[in-house]
Amino acid sequence: MDTYITIKSPAEGYYTEKRSKFYAFIHPVSSAEEVKELNAHYRKKYYDARHVCYSYRLGPDGALFRANDDGEPSSTAGKPILGVLLSANVTDAVIFVIRYYGGVNLGTGGLIVAYRAAAADALAHAEQTEKIVERQLTHSFTYPEMNAVMKIVKDMQLRVVSQDFGSTTCSITLAVRLSDYDTLRARLQDIRF
């Protein structure tokens, strides 16, 4: 697979149960560092909240993930939030759920339902998008080969990451769809002058 699903922009969700309020926020992210910054932001903004729980998935295959219960009973907050991301097959995203305690204990089952519902509401308000997994390739060539290289770039609709045109040789770094990588390599190697 060389595509994956993520979200375009942040969105919000909400759920209430027995006077406890659950505010949910979903964000597109590309690193654990971004998650840390968002966590600090929500902890500061909602300093009076009882819990700031979250889960995230990173990478085209979602292999890097984390679920944080932030003091709630084990697996009653982070895992249900992560389950929402998993069931929608969304990656490169984080969902935060901020809980304001309403004075009535919900029990483990109630917490799981509440955190899952809040996270699902945030995801429902987010616009999903499909992204392409790319791989970069750097190719060096001579000036007489320039037209042939640029024809390949145009034909395959490649994204030019960088280029360097020296006095005797040229170098270009291209972003190519993962499934087209071998084809690109073969076409570039077939250029002869």
Top keywords for this entry?
193 residues, alpha+beta, 5-stranded antiparallel β-sheet, 3-stranded antiparallel β-sheet, 5 helices, 10 strands
Describe the structure.
Helix content is 32%, strand content 37%. It has helices at residues 32-45, 78-87, 107-124, 146-155, 181-189, and strands at 3-7, 11-17, 20-28, 51-58, 64-68, 93-100, 128-132, 134-142, 159-165, 169-177. A hairpin with a 2-residue loop joins strand 2 (11-17) and strand 3 (20-28). It is built from five helices and ten strands; from the N terminus they run βββαββαβαββαββα. Strands 2-3-6-4-5 form a five-stranded antiparallel sheet, sandwiched between helices. Strands 8-10-9 form a three-stranded antiparallel sheet, covered by helices on one side. It has 193 residues and is α+β, with helices and mostly antiparallel strands. The two termini are 36 Å apart. It is elongated and about 80 Å long. The relative contact order is 0.19. The longest helix has 18 residues, at 107-124.
Walk me through the topology:
Elements: E1 3-7, E2 11-17, E3 20-28, H1 32-45, E4 51-58, E5 64-68, H2 78-87, E6 93-100, H3 107-124, E7 128-132, E8 134-142, H4 146-155, E9 159-165, E10 169-177, H5 181-189
Antiparallel strand pairs: 1-7, 2-3, 3-6, 4-5, 4-6, 8-10, 9-10
Helix pairs in contact: 2-3
